[in-house]
Amino acid sequence: MTLVRDVGEQGVLQKLKAFCPSDVIGDDGAILALKSSESLVVTTDVLVENIHFSDRTTAPEDIGWRAVAANLSDLAAMGATPVGLTVGLSLHGEVSLDWLDRLYQGLTACTSTYQTAIVGGDVCRSPVVSLAITAFGQVAPQRAIRRHTASPGNAIVVTGDHGSARAGLELLLQDEIPQDLTPEQRQTLIDAHQRPRPRLDVLAPLYALLGQQGCAGMDSSDGLADAVIQVCRESNVGASLKAEAIPIAPELRSWVGVERALDWALYGGEDFELLLCLPPDMAAELVQQIGGNAAIVGTIAGDRAVQLQTGDDWQTLSQQSGFQHF
Amino acid sequence: MTLVRDVGEQGVLQKLKAFCPSDVIGDDGAILALKSSESLVVTTDVLVENIHFSDRTTAPEDIGWRAVAANLSDLAAMGATPVGLTVGLSLHGEVSLDWLDRLYQGLTACTSTYQTAIVGGDVCRSPVVSLAITAFGQVAPQRAIRRHTASPGNAIVVTGDHGSARAGLELLLQDEIPQDLTPEQRQTLIDAHQRPRPRLDVLAPLYALLGQQGCAGMDSSDGLADAVIQVCRESNVGASLKAEAIPIAPELRSWVGVERALDWALYGGEDFELLLCLPPDMAAELVQQIGGNAAIVGTIAGDRAVQLQTGDDWQTLSQQSGFQHF
Prior knowledge:
The structure is a homodimer of 326-residue chains.
Chain A: H1 4-17, E1 30-32, E2 39-48, H2 60-78, E3 81-91, H3 97-113, E4 118-125, E5 130-139, E6 155-158, H4 164-173, H5 183-194, H6 203-210, E7 216-219, H7 224-235, E8 238-242, H8 250-267, E9 274-278, H9 280-290, E10 295-301, E11 306-310, E12 313-316
Parallel strand pairs in A: 3-4, 8-11
Antiparallel strand pairs in A: 2-5, 3-5, 6-9, 6-10, 7-9, 8-10, 11-12
Helix pairs in contact in A: 1-3, 2-3, 4-5, 6-9
């Protein structure tokens, strides 16, 4: 097995160049043309070995796919079409070239699926492997999806199932294969975790409905509850959500029961769907056009509470203090 | 002393928000307007604790300044004006808030000096502190400075002194203070290392001379020899350089002698000046307009050899294999 230390920096760069378009390599930076009337959207993420990913649970191809998908989802969350991304890779000499190759296979499988590319990067030595990805996209400024523009009366749309990514992770962490899932159902949930799909496909039908105006929204990468709470906080509004309306994969519901499935949908995170706040008629039209399991899950309210209705029960959702990473 | 682990992620984010323009915070990404006729230029760098910087030799303010300066120099090297940059910060709980504050003081001292700003970022936990910076700029595409467009007959301009950054590092690493430098001279060399100045100021006079055309060039961050060799390789040309013409600070020459000073100028790196290849008359005019220690140091030649003339001696420069980081 060839290791990074066997080939040195030039060997690594040579390998990685194969994954970048040849016309953007060779200068101090990449030059990219943007549509003249559009603004630049920029988003960045750092992923660290054994904190955000681990070789023990995730194949390098999936680490790569997920890293790109998370950043493209942030672009979709702003209404932006991808233009390119840069990858800052930290690694040490004991990393194998095979691992590196598979990581970049995963990165580029996702970039090419979404018609974009790695257009620059940096490789440096570090005792800890990490990936710093910056993605940039373009959007007509008046159409940008922002968190602070939700209005009372807006319907809240989610573009697909929630909870499946968390369920897939659970399946990967369990040694036993649950008897109440078929192999296909199991794989569907695992795919939701390993190969999340940023909802860039939603932008075209959304813009066709919106015309030149924008709408409020974000992605649900930190869970559906977090997305609703963030949008409400930034917009100075509240929301009422209907638990029964939240799209959850039937196999998930039958596997872990309604209550846990709802908990994972609200707090599991990493489903990378979009949450959008739109006038009700437009919301209904969008849900129909997107198809799949897109749904209207609630309404934006004038007061500042975020409430969830389950049957006749109402509970107030609040931000979980779950992300104290240090 | 308050540590990162005492305040958690929210506490860190709260602190860092103060260093970003308030209108770009709160969404999944930042939205930036570009001039409509210009292309986007992107460059990225990762810096790792104890590899690219160390608290033992460098104050956090200087780590921050240098990190931004290196990226802005890459933009200048492409002829691009900065639009903004993102900072992906990896840190652990034992980092002090004071260190973090001083790091961001340094980052923003450099961004504000060059009329740009931190427009996005990510903070994550890692056992190793690192900084991943991606800088964005804009340039009219026909004006971009590229490495592959040097032509035989071009004069080779460097925008200022070389070797001083390497000398400053040497002074910081030495315990003894050399007797043959005044305190002011010593500080000048140390400043060259700690507070390098990306040569964005060169772009306006350069463009005034060039009109709508571009020119070949890059920055000298990996040493003057490397810059000449890279441009020649990408352009399929050679060069002849005159050692006596290379601008070297007089205090450096008198401190370490001509030979070592020249070695540091050619191979020391991190001077962050620009190397530009221009028609001779335009080169002379640019050198005069920039002033300082800008100089014409040689000529682009048709064959592929890169040669250095020292008195009557000629030597061929070749890429040192010095950057095998693993």
